[in-house]
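Quick look at the format.
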Amino acid sequence: MKYQGGCHCGAVRFEIEAPEEIVVTQCNCSICSKSGYLHYVVDKEAFTLLQGKAQLSTYTFGTGVAQHHFCKICGIKPFYVPRSHPQGFSINVRCLDNPPSYSINTFDGQHWEDNIHQLRNDT
């Protein structure tokens, strides 16, 4: 199935391919808990940026591997390249217009190094 989503102001729009039912991850690391992010990781082939490339700004911290993409206008981060899966995108399911049915797994991102194996085995 194809699902579309975007930032709050609509400047950034994207489309993903995903099944009708998915499992998303809620992480308690500092950036995810402050932004309320719900992760669903897709391969780059399952992601299409429809509009707004020029409206994206990128934020990195720590190792610099994760590429957090934010809309320059409204500040929303609808997707990013995660450190755990740099070959794909983590989609904020809350930014999908009509998300698939989902269940939530929790991830202890405050202790990322000790727990990363859980994320890499789940996808």
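Next, a different chain entirely:
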Amino acid sequence: MPFKIIAGIVAVTLMLAYVVPAMIKLRDVVLILVIIIGIVLMLVDLWESLQSKSD
């Protein structure tokens, strides 16, 4: 379980480091909305993965 938490934190950090500069530089409302939806979906998947008892 600790490995899943650390891997999830690393994944979220890397994704944010990748998409936030694009959001700041481009400032397109639709692109920002799509990126936010993607981040929320990733966080929901991470939450479900951490709640599962498979490991």
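Residues 2-51 form one domain.

See the schema section for token definitions.
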